[in-house]
Amino acid sequence: MIVGKIVGSVVATRKNDKLVGSKFMIVEPIDNMPTKYRMVAVDNVGAGIGEIVLIATGSAARIGCNMEDAPVDAAIVGIIDDGIGLE
């Protein structure tokens, strides 16, 4: 899993049928995470810009957001309230 900060959102009026109704957020991984690139993640926990979130990637992302058949590679699966050493 990856810890990141939400820095923006994405609006897609046309998308895969399995993604209709999904909210997309731009997430920037925090400094000590294995990836340094921003990513777009499906948000089904109601996170907002500026919040620190927990991201699942790959097949865990699809399972974590109950979208096993959807083209999802990253999903926000939690909002972090507190964490030692995150920033």
List the helices and strands and how they pair.
Layout: E1 2-10, E2 23-29, E3 39-43, E4 52-57, H1 59-64, E5 74-79
Parallel strand pairs: 3-5
Antiparallel strand pairs: 1-2, 1-4, 2-3, 4-5
Keywords: Bacterial microcompartment, Carboxysome
Subcellular location: Carboxysome
Protein name: Ethanolamine utilization protein EutN/carboxysome structural protein Ccml
Short description, anyone?
The protein has one helix at residues 59-64, and strands at residues 2-10, 23-29, 39-43, 52-57, 74-79.
Question: Could you describe the 3D structure shown?
Answer:
It contains 1 helix and 5 strands; from the N terminus they run E-E-E-E-H-E. With 87 residues, it is mainly beta. A 5-stranded mixed barrel has the order 1-2-3-5-4. The longest helix has 6 residues, at 59-64. The chain is globular, with a radius of gyration of 12 Å. The mean pLDDT is 86.
